[in-house]
Amino acid sequence: MSLANALFASGDVNGAASELDVLLRAAPTSATALALQGRIHERKGNLAAARTSFAKALDIQPDSVDVLRALINIDLREKRRDRAVQTLDKQLAKVDKNAALQLLAGRTYAVTGDLPKAEAALRRAMELDPTLVEAYHALGQILIRQNKLDQAKLAYQQRVAERPNDVASMTMIGMVELTQGHSDAARASFEKVLSVDPRAAVASNNLAFMDAEAGTNLDVALNRAQAAKAARPDDPDIDDTLGWIYVKKGLPALAISPLESAVQKNPSNPVYHYHLGTAYLKRGDSERAKTLFERALRISSSFQGASEAKRALDGLAR
Question: Do residues 98 and 114 touch, judged by C-beta distance below 8 A?
Fold first, then answer.
């Protein structure tokens, strides 16, 4: 399995498939092997075979969010949104108390246009895991799309009045303020969260990112990002923050590893690609930087940093 994964990661799809055939003959019900088989089929463009492999893996391991995500992505690529929702609902009926699954549900419902269900799923994700950074950001975007920021902020303030140590509600107040452009109020809210829970990953990460964007208090920002990373080692938002701080500190070589990790975990986020491209540019690798800036702008032409990415590309073209 390790050899097959290594070959696949290096781009040797046929070599990976050959090793996987040996493995599947010995262990035909291995969910891990079937999931890799699905990725190999997907890489080769055979989405029907990929879906079959992923579905088998999910039947064996119903709590695998990565496999479910792969299945849903295939449905969405084929513009079969109803099937994506049916697949998701089926798994939610089996596995409810899983924050990562609820996060995936929220994002899927948002893509398919069911914003109330998306909001409910994201709130459930935060309830199950108050440190899940991505859920806060995703919920903020849902509230924006529903024009519910003021209403949401009032509701969270009422919850905090009733439960003064409700870290999730206090954090969402800060997220709403940040989304509304009230950075000073957001900073105060996040600092209040840390006064209640010094290990609160979302508040630590957001304060660190705000300082990185401003280019101030970078040593403090680095400490906060590292604390958030310790609390949530697999969160791509935190990887991105950590890498961006290293970029701002003039340490692009240290920035590349966490930024690569962020891109691998969430390749659809244009900001991650832009930040990684900036790190490569500052390191002197113009070709990789150009590729990443172009990829970021293909994903979105209006993300935070898009204008900087366009300017960087113009500079590289001269």
Answer: no
pLDDT in tens, the chain (318 residues): 899 988 888 889 899 999 999 999 999 999 999 999 999 999 888 999 999 999 999 999 988 899 999 999 999 888 899 999 998 998 888 887 899 999 999 999 998 989 999 999 998 998 898 888 788 878 888 887 888 888 888 888 888 888 898 898 899 899 999 988 999 999 999 999 999 999 999 999 999 999 999 999 999 999 999 999 999 898 999 999 999 999 999 999 999 999 999 998 888 899 999 999 999 999 999 999 999 999 999 999 999 899 999 999 999 887
- Quick: pLDDT tens for 252-266: 999 999 999 999 888
CB 274 within 8 A of CB 247: no
Q: Which of 41, 96, 98, 93 is nearest to 70 (CA)?
A: 41
CB 280 within 8 A of CB 296: no
**CA nearest 34: which of 45, 23, 43, 44?**
23
Dihedral angle sign, alpha carbons of residues 60, 61, 62, 65: negative
Q: Which residue has the tokens 């493995």?
A: 23
Q: Could you tell me which residues come within 8 angstroms of residue 304 by beta carbon, excluding any fewer than 6 positions away?
A: 271
Task: State the Cα–Cα distance between residues 85 and 75, nearest whole angstrom.
Answer: 9
| Those residues with Cβ within 8 angstroms of residue 252's Cβ, 6 or more apart along the chain or in another chain | 246, 278, 279, 280, 282, 283
Reported as half-sphere exposure (CB side, CA atoms, 13 A), residue 166 has a value of 18
Shortest CA distance to 144 belongs to which of 167, 122, 168, 169? 122
User: Residue written as tokens 């969430």?
Assistant: 266
Q: Could you give the CA distance from residue 1 to residue 112 in angstroms, rounded to a whole number?
A: 35
Specify the residue for token string 């799309």: 145
